[in-house]
Amino acid sequence: WKDRTNEVIEKHNKNPDEKKRLIQEKENLAKQLTLEQTQHKNVKTKLEELLITARKEKENIQQEHNAAKAALAETNKELALIKEAAAKATEKATKLENDMAAQETALQDSRNKEMQVGDLFLIHFPPNFTPHERQENMHDRNRFSGSAAI
Known about the structure:
rod-shaped, coiled coil, about 95% helix, mainly alpha, about 150 residues
C-alpha cells in the first residue's frame, strides 16, 4: 500500500508543469466561457430589442393598412353614389332632350299649320279686300258650307 501511495505522489510531483498548464488552461476556458456567456447575453438583448421594434413596426403597418382599407371602402361607397347620381343625371338629361325634341316638333307643326292657315286666308281673302268685303265673303262661305252639310 505504501508503495502505491509513493508511486502516486511521485507521478504527481513529476509533472508540476503539467499541473500548472492544466490549471492555466482551466482558467482560460473559464474566462472564455464567461466571455461567451456575456456575448450571448448581449446578442440576446439586441435581438430582443430588434424583435420589440419589429413588432411595433408591424403593429403600425397593420394600423396604417386598416386605415387605408377603411378609406378605400369609404371611397368605393362614394364612387358608387357618384356613379348612381351620374346615371340618374344622364337618364334625366336624356328624358329632357326627348321632351325638348317632342316640343320642338310640336312647335314646328304649329308653325307649319299657322303658315298654312295664313296661306289659306290670303287665298280666300286677298289683301285688296276691304274688311266689309271679307266679312261678307265669310258670311257667304258659312252659308254654303252649312247648306252643303245638309
